[in-house]
Write a structure and sequence with these properties.
alpha/beta, Cobalt-precorrin-4 Transmethylase, domain 1, 26% strand, 3 domains, single chain, Rossmann fold, 5-stranded parallel beta sheet
Length: 411
């Protein structure tokens, strides 16, 4: 039986993950039971009973120096058990340990991570999630907020410099759309606490910095269609017929290939019909509707009430300065200078759709974006009293799209 004596030549450094003070699987328990040295943070050391005779080492601020010391002790035959939180290979001590401890001396014993538990509490899968660690990383809170803005499912490991409420405030300021939010604190412990709400209430709250924040795109109500676009013009308020026609709108939105989350600009939004339909198709998208005409702004605000569309009064491209970089842009008004300015702000992998009535502008747009079609629509209207129909043609419109790939590159 192990009695705590040094076993020269058989030394090892075990990184043993704990969750709720428990290790997982027989090898983890054996690593602790046979340890001659047990090291870890104060909280982790309090949660276990070290073997009789084992030396106990409490971590200080110099983790690198401590790991180098433990590696030397293992080389001299000590069996070292380093207690970690959750999975040491997931934003944990393993990254540093693999740099400082010889591989033949290092073994990892993961416990479930707090992230996996947080998603379990949220009742959802997480293989498609983006995970950010804001703990002890400069600018970590801003990085987390940016991830929430850009991705539909994000988990953040918080810390003293990046508490949940700061991440919520920065995400709201960045323009993140509708999100369901869960904050998990002391997961799998007796004092476990689960909070659920939205980004705005997260920003106003006061939370333990040692928490996990899960933010997911809020699903639209089941009764509300979310894959319907190209709605009739009659469903929107508009002035003097100044609205993107239903058929052109349907094509434009299909060419935008809207992501589940991110930022969209609707430049020269007019009635806001494109913004409203984009918001319904992608509820997690932050949609900014830019308009300079005071008479149109009243109509725009009426049409966007109750949606996540944010109305921005101003003239492009100067108004772009106040906005987050876009993943998608619809240009319904303005000249080529507006398109050029939008291209300089477009994020990698982004896409722009621009519509023009003028052939000369459309050709320039196609040269900058890469693809163009002409949309000619003729609508059936009654003629006479016998139910006959005739075709009433609309003015042709040119639709250009792409991301600055050049002629013919994006079809």
């Amino acid at each position: 039986m192990h009695d705590g004596t040094r076993l020269r030549g058989t030394g090892i450094v075990h990184l043993v993950g704990l969750l709720g003070g428990e290790s997982f699987a027989a090898p983890s328990r054996e690593a602790l039971r046979t340890a001659t040295v047990v090291a870890g943070s104060a909280s982790n050391l309090e949660s276990v009973v070290p073997p009789r005779g084992a030396r106990v080492i409490r971590f200080g601020s110099d983790l690198a120096g401590m790991l180098e010391r433990l590696a030397r002790e293992a080389t001299n035959g000590e069996r070292v058990c380093v207690l970690c939180s959750g999975d040491p290979g997931f934003f944990g001590l393993a990254r540093l340990a693999t740099q400082l401890v010889p591989p033949e001396l290092l073994k990892l014993h993961p416990a479930p991570s707090s992230v996996s538990v947080a998603f379990a509490r949220a009742g959802t899968n997480w293989e498609d999630a983006v995970v950010v660690s804001a703990h002890g990383r400069p600018g970590g809170a801003q990085t987390a907020a940016e991830a929430i803005l850009r991705h539909p499912k994000v988990a953040t490991l918080c810390g003293p410099d990046a508490p949940p409420q700061l991440i919520g405030r920065l995400a709201v300021e960045a323009g993140a759309g509708l999100r369901d939010v869960l904050v998990g604190t002391s997961l799998c412990e007796e004092r476990e606490k689960i909070w659920q709400g939205n980004l705005e209430s997260l920003a106003r709250g006061d939370f333990d910095p040692a928490s996990v924040v899960v933010a997911t795109v809020k699903a639209p109500p089941a009764s509300r269609p979310n894959l319907r676009w190209g709605r009739p013009e009659e469903e929107f308020a508009h002035l003097r017929g100044m609205i993107t026609k239903a058929e052109v709108r349907a094509i434009a939105i299909s060419k935008l290939e809207l992501p589940a989350a991110g930022v969209m600009w609707d430049v020269g939004a007019g009635s806001g019909s494109v913004s409203v339909e984009a918001a319904a198709v992608a509820p997690g998208l932050s949609v900014y509707a830019l308009e300079r005409d005071p008479s149109q702004l009243q109509v725009l605000r009426a049409n966007t009430t109750g949606t996540q569309v944010k109305v921005v009064e101003g003239e492009a491209p100067a108004a772009f300065d106040a906005l987050a970089d876009p993943d998608r842009v619809f240009v319904g008004g303005g000249g080529i200078a507006v398109l050029e300015s939008a291209l300089t702000r477009l994020r990698p992998g982004g896409r722009i759709v621009a519509v023009y009535a003028s052939m000369s502008r459309a050709v320039e747009g196609a040269q900058k974006l890469g693809a163009m079609i002409q949309v000619s629509v003729s609508r059936a209207v009654p003629i006479g009293e016998d139910g006959s129909l005739r075709l009433n043609s609309e003015n042709p419109v040119f639709v250009c799209w792409g991301a600055g790939s050049g002629p013919g590159r994006d079809r």
